[in-house]
Amino acid sequence: MLKIIRAMTLTTFVLSTPLLLSSSVFAQQRQNIQNQVSTTSTTPTKEPMRLNLLPQDTLIAEATKPAVVRVVIGCKAQVKFNGKNYTPEIDGHGSGFFVNPNGYIVTNAHVVELVEQTAECKDILAMKALEQILEDVNDIEAFSQKYPTKEDFIKDLKFDKIETKKEVILTNGDKLPFEVVVSGNQEDSGRDVAIIKVNLRNAPSLLIADSNQVQVQQDITAVGYPGVGDIPQERGVGYNEPSFTNGKVSARKYMNGSLVLQVSAAITNGNSGGPVINNKGEVVGISTFAYTKQSGFSFIVASNTIKDFLQQAGVQNDEGVVTQRFRTALNSYNQGQCEQARQNFITIQRLFPKHPTVDKYLQICSVN
Q1: Which structural domains are found in the chain, ordered by start?
Q2: Does this model's pTM top 0.70?
Q3: Are the C-beta atoms of residues 79 and 88 closer than 8 Å to each other?
């Protein structure tokens, strides 16, 4: 605006003193003034669209999400009872996270225990079969007299086939079968840890912190797939995206000689086995159990116990190139350096095509 005001002032001066200038000089001066006005009135260059910069907590969450998985377990069977066929089935899920780029995942022992114990699975399936059978029973009283106990009923139940379901669901929705590498005792909550493996390379993974350094009142975040957050009829991106629940370390406790951390973050069914991270995005433990009737009493297995199981399994905790590149790309993106970020996003996409969020950032950077 300053340049426009100066041009208008100069024009007023020239037009008010025409006798002091020759016609040719006046014409040249007027042309110069018109050019100046035209230049200063040009429409400003359109600025590129601003990036949606991410706060620090969101940066950590974005870097953590790709490494978190849903662990699905279940059993199904074909059974016969009184000449009729029934197909009882049970399933459930917990959470877990990649601890190594070669497909190694940490979760709870109690999450995978069911599929490792066929006898227990068979017992639960028998009760599911009973629910289906009772729908066909006309005389419940006579049935109860004939089968006064569960054992009496199971004797007449013929199992033809039992199958187990063991799969991991990645944050992009892909499903992969898993095998149990090593598992602790689910009855010992202080060592409720299992290491499982899927056939995958360059998986994004998380680093494990030293739980001896964790202090009371330290900020933590529980990550995973709480069942209360699932909407059965929705199986889209939201279903595969883990939840982040903030809290603090309430106390350091010991169970059978193993450190467990009491935390204020809410832990519910489905959270089991999910990582609990500090404000650096490092794992300080995994969710294991909570007292459902009392709020504020959730417990996590300490990270150093996880390290014991990794050593037993011969697995090294390694963040991997995909996670490192992704963090670098996010920082570049957040500094407005979209071209640098884009190059790293492209590399990540090549190394790990199953990455759930790279495409989103590539689309943003393509228009900036």
Answers
A1: 58-313 (2.40.10.120), 320-366 (no CATH)
A2: yes
A3: yes
